[in-house]
Amino acid sequence: MKFLRLKLVGFKSFCDQTELVTEPGLTGIVGPNGCGKSNLVEAMRWVMGESSYKAMRASGMDDVIFAGAARRPARNSAEVTLVLDNTDRTAPAALNNADILEVTRRIEREAGSVYRVNGREVRARDVQLLFADASTGAHSPALVRQGQIGELIAAKPTQRRALLEEAAGISGLHSRRHEAELRLRAAEQNLERVDDLVAQLE
Ligand code: ATP
């Protein structure tokens, strides 16, 4: 799976429709302080399912919406789309089996976020798993924050293990195991309730 394009509108400092094309090879983003370089990386993190507004350097998720500038009014929504090459079929077929996937996250002020894959509404979880299976995602070590290298040097062995698991491509399996365990626990509780009801009837 390859990232082809990032499209933003109304996200942080990107008030107008903006498109970042990732050509084969290395893509560099250069610009003066405060021009929005980190905002672009945060847009990638956000569309891949980031749920923490703190990770967006914000005090609430609505803060990712363009807040206005000297001559521009604030917007009421923000939308980020990541266009992916899925010719290797990394994405689960049940989610979408197309060659090109457009993963979109849209937020409306005070109404939360909606995710879509090629126009079809999906759960945040589906998007998070899609990227976890491709060994990337909002919390992927492939996205390196300022100061993160220092944190890694000081990290505990268990935290470093998460990094190796990501590199081995098994973090998606961990998420699925956790979901399966939750469903199993819910099923066990239902069975206990059925046993209680049967005991009452006898
Ligand atoms: P540096 O090189 O200093 O790290 P940078 O190029 O990474 O800077 P960013 O941190 O991405 O810059 O962008 C900061 C800019 O984004 C600031 O000017 C800030 O006002 C603007 N900004 C952040 N959130 C919003 C928002 N919701 N609406 C409008 N502008 C915003």
From TrEMBL:
Record's comment describing the protein's domains: Contains large globular domains required for ATP hydrolysis at each terminus and a third globular domain forming a flexible hinge near the middle of the molecule. These domains are separated by coiled-coil structures.
Similarity annotation: Belongs to the SMC family.
Top-level taxonomic group: Bacteria
Function description: Required for chromosome condensation and partitioning.
Subunit and partners: Homodimer.
Annotated residues for binding of ATP: P32, N33, G34, C35, G36, K37, S38, N39
Residues represented out of the complete protein: 1 to 202 of 1151
Localization (cell): Cytoplasm
Protein name: Chromosome partition protein Smc
Organism the protein comes from: Devosia pacifica
